């Protein structure tokens, strides 16, 4: 992620934390809301003067924003096996973790799951201690995960995902307008495989960027949406077990 992208990503995070909306920025800069959205799409065309004006809305200067963006790059990149196990073994903690990763704030979690405020606070404090988030004044939540954060391969979270989440996710014909299932097979060299993995990673980043772009919308106008991407060198064993001599 480039320096500019990191700064814009952190700016969007701070705007959400301070409940500042695109319309507020549009009024401040004397622009249309659409122009503001385009301005913050990637940040390549935003001037220092406009960036400074936006920072004023959150009582912050550009230097502070740059420092926060730099710190975000150094944030937590993974949990230990024991920490992942702690999250998986507590379903309420797991639910809150997923909500936080998806950008939910305190009241939004309560509205979506009708969780007791005291229980929610308890789970957020646990995640604060794990270094996943920083619980700020007025119950604001600041995520402390690196853009490169990932779960342990074969660890408790990934195992839970493969055994309990994926079967439910794929329990669909993927025929609705908001669903898509594609599978492609071919022959690929290891070098091409590595290059393609980088392209897939960029697609994941675009997915999160698109989700962040909808942060201005009410929760009622957004739906939980999951993207599953998998690539591996693989051969379907069943084809080797066919009796081709006697096959009809």
TrEMBL record:
One of its GO terms (molecular function) is DNA binding. Residues 11-68 form the HTH cro/C1-type domain. InterPro entries: Cro/C1-type_HTH (IPR001387), Lambda_DNA-bd_dom_sf (IPR010982). It comes from the Bacteria. This is XRE family transcriptional regulator. It comes from Vibrio fortis.
